[in-house]
Amino acid sequence: MGAVTALAPDLFRVDLAILAQSRPGSGFFSVPDPLDWLRGKANAPVMVDPYLVARAILEVVGHCQVRSPAGGRLVWNEYLVFLAREDHDRLRPLEGLLHGELRPLLREQIKKLNAETVGEITVRLLVDEGEGQVAGTIQIRVKFVPAPQRQPTEKGEITIRVGLESSEHSPSSYGSITNTTGPEDPTVKAGPVPVGHLADGTERIPEPGPGVRLTWRGGRVFVPMGKRVVLGRPHADPRGSFIALDGASSRISRRHCWVEPLNDVVEVGRLADANPVQVHGRLLQPGGRLTVEAFPVEISLSSGDLVVGLDMVKGS
């Protein structure tokens, strides 16, 4: 059995124990090393480190069989790497090694595959708190993101960006990694955007406004003015003013973000240990906050795993 299993066309599971027992193969497949059985390594516990994570990503890069109209090989340019909490926390002190060494390895792998991308490559390491995410395994969700807008890297979060040489299929050529503490301007002033999970024709229940309406694919709730609430995955021990996001996957943190409507603006914050939070495309740093002044907006949790629409309610 190989180290990489395709769970869906855009989702792969990598068993790092099997990967650690194999040799990097020619091209992109790992080859089991039969000598490991003689060395007593077959049942040894795996230590998740930057080397194994990098190898896992390179293995998945090689599984892309998509081709351009001219027949050239393409590779995905966004990789969301989900780890168990203990594996993710173990890697945090070593993120500098990932930043420094993964970028040239990805370039080399893409060159070896004679492939192209549709833009810069982004790799983001996230936490999956579900019981199905076992320590020593990772899941990698992949996709094509055409002409991606560059977003700031968060302090305390492991994010690697790879800029490739310019070509007609890869217009971006950043070639650098940034590590910022958050957006320069913490106020969102952009105009209204469509809310992805609001369905036309939905019955509107009058809210006792003023306040804000939060809508996601699993439900809807009203938050009155001046009340701070925490949003997160349903769990057995909620504390304080908590809104359970019904239908959220294990990739949504138990306490993910908070929302507080204040007069004509809304404060949105990210909990320090939570997965990514984006508000109208702006990435919040762990423990950071921003002010929303124009509505409606989308709050994206865990890089789009769940999207919460936020709209101001003035009241009747």
Summarize the model shown:
With 316 residues, this protein is of the alpha+beta class. Helix content is 15%, strand content 31%.
Q: What does it look like?
A:
The protein folds into two domains: 4-162, FhaA, phosphopeptide-binding domain (DUF3662) (hypothetical protein PF0899 fold); 187-313, Sandwich (Tumour Suppressor Smad4), CATH 2.60.200.20. It is built from five helices and 22 strands. The protein has helices spanning 16-20, 35-39, 50-61, 85-91, 95-112; strands at 4-8, 11-15, 22-24, 30-32, 73-74, 78-83, 115-116, 121-127, 137-143, 159-162, 187-188, 211-216, 219-224, 229-232, 242-244, 257-262, 265-270, 277-279, 282-283, 289-292, 297-301, 306-313. A six-stranded mixed β-sheet has the order 1-2-9-6-8-10. Strand 18 (277-279) and strand 19 form a beta hairpin. The model is unreliable at 163-205 (pLDDT under 50).
Unreliable spans are: 163-205
In total, the number of domains comes to: 2
> Mind telling me the CATH class of the largest domain?
Alpha Beta
Shape: globular
Mean pLDDT comes to 78
Cα separation of the termini: 62 Å
As laid out across the biggest beta sheet, the strand order is 1-2-9-6-8-10
Rg calculated over all Cα atoms: 21 Å
SSE string, helices as H and strands as E: EEHEEHHEEHHEEEEEEEEEEEEEEEE
List keywords for this structure.
22 strands, 6-stranded mixed sheet, globular, alpha+beta, 316 residues, hypothetical protein PF0899 fold
